Amino acid sequence: MQFTQRTVQCIGPSGLHRMAYTEWGARDNPRVLVCVHGLTRNGRDFDALAEAMSAHYRVICPDVVGRGRSGRLRDPAGYAIPQYVADMVTLIARLNVDSVHWVGTSMGGLIGMALAAQEGTPIHKLVLNDVGPLITIESLQRIATYVGTDPDWATFDEALAYVRFVSQPFGQLTDAQWYHLTETSVLQRPDGRWAFRYDPRIAEPFRAAFVDKDIDLWPVYDQIACPTMAIRGADSDLLTRETWQRMETRGPCARLAEIPGVGHAPMFQSDEQISVVRDFLLSA
Fold first, then answer.
1. Taking a C-beta distance cutoff of 8 angstroms, is the pair 202, 148 a contact?
2. pLDDT tier at 207 (50, 70, 90 boundaries)?
3. Integer distance in angstroms from the first to the last C-alpha of the chain?
């Protein structure tokens, strides 16, 4: 693997913060692919996809603020889509390009939807990975059971076992893939214990806004005009089959793809899953 770790300074209501990102491929490649992760994950989730796509793109994988190597917000109320979209606009300006292709998993897809729906958007192709315009109450309740709980472990092996357990919907991954997804998402604290690389306060806006019903984002989706692909884990509880199928007939009329044996969400660790993204992005 060959990548460079960089940061960009962003601003929000509570002040300045740093957003970290990994960069793959040639810096002078005008074709840029931005890959954005899910709620509690980080940009290193895309290492396999980024490496595969780096022959075609300059691939940028940010750690959304509060996650991974990025800074934390002084006011946790900022952990919401408007701040994340603003940070991505700053990142794209740093890259000095007018257009990008976008792969967004779960929360990263919601950020992509929000940005792609804007007039004059820099997103010219969009991949939504196991997320869509309707977020079910069942999936919101599941997320609420773990986000912000801030577990810690005495050993790395305990952390690895926990990640494998809570991330079973990722599907059948190899031991090496589970190890990679764990080592890039946990760190050893000064007291010797292991913990996740994210600010547990990211849960505060989520819980404050939590309502006992589905979240309807169809008006946002209907504003998207760029070519779009909607990928669904066949066993997903976040993107229902009904919503996924409707995405083919509304808004950008997304091309559909489904990954068997996976829930929320496909992680693009295998050649088969990577090829779904590659074929769509590189198609005319």
1. yes
2. confident
3. 28
